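We modelled each protein-ligand pair independently. The example shown here corresponds to the pyridoxal-5'-phosphate entry; the chain sequence is given first, followed by the ligand as SMILES.
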Amino acid sequence: MSDTKGHSSTSSMAHYHPETRLVHAGTLRSDFGEMSESLFLTQGFTYDSAEECEARFKGEKPGFLYSRFSNPTVAMFERRMAALEGAEAGRATATGMAAMTTAMLAPLQAGDHVVAAKALFGSCRYVIETLLPRYGITSTLVDGGDLDAWRKAMRPNTKTCFLESPTNPTLDVVDIAEVAKIAHQAGARLVVDNVFATPLWQSPLELGADVVVYSATKHIDGQGRCLGGVILSTEQFITEHIHTFFRQTGPSISPFNAWVLLKGLETLGIRVKAQTESAAKIADVLASHPKVTRLIYPGRADHPQADIVKKQMRAGSTMIGFEVKGGKEGAFRALNGFRLARISNNLGDAKTIVTHPATTTHQRLTPEARAELGIGDGFIRFSIGLEHVDDLIEDVKGALEKV
Ligand SMILES: *Cc1c(COP(=O)(O)O)cnc(C)c1O
């Protein structure tokens, strides 16, 4: 699939900094020369002749065919994401879960085996632990930080490894380069869910991963408006595994949502930088607070995998994890005590959000499984927004007084 009009191609943007690519990469301009990216709300396209139509369907001529698998606005979003990530190609999906499920399911078949780190976003864990096995694709969950456990879990039929880093919600960091080596030695590919790190702070493909997936719902939109996702990889992986699956099953994104996300990308750099700076300051306040029993922030020297953070991330995170005294009651008192931060289950938003994972995103897990992952009843996930950091510090101090 390609366009017929001129565009800033991915390769010609490669030498620019990420901030520049976020504003310009992948733009397709029509003959009108519009400045802002156009929203092509069209299901299909017309052809000048039956011969032209045939040639496009055969892939002999470039051009768009049908918005289930090719649309100019969606293509702009995919190209900008690919340029940002340093990927050859990408496909945008309706949600982050559609991206993850497609990246897992499309290249696999009954008899294949998957190894994944067990600390995962609840729905990702469902896909690996429950959904894939229903179709004969078995899976093994390991402690992501235990490289020997990854090695031991590999089987001759292991085709895909999957991990999230930093993990949701405990912000553990997994060594992507080492897991990629283990996967490749076993002839498997590594898929990384890079949502928590954001494309700004971590580039899994450079570290050796083969596929990167995002929920664009999070930082990429960053303003709580729409859902979306994206799969990024080599041209070969996308053509061989993703394109046909996409064309035939349709986990596609609406051009409208792709357009919102495309405009979101223009400000991703400044938003994530500001949110990370504030998060670092708030983490320092929490670290010495008497009501806080545990603090996890990837930007601090006391993070359990601080050495890996240094090796594979360019900065800390917009996310903080902390545990308060008093278990669930303590956590609920804190949540109800915030004035500015909103109780919700999204993250990466301009608005600061507090989440209680044990009763929301991870309530499906048994208490034992939660304990194993370090998600205690007093654990709070904190997504830092764009408010002034002093107001947020005042807010968190006030909330902790209620604990
Ligand atoms: C939110 C999230 C997803 C799912 O994304 P949706 O857009 O909500 O479908 C997947 N992985 C991680 C790490 C997430 O935070």
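The CA atoms of residues 25 and 80 lie 5 Å apart.
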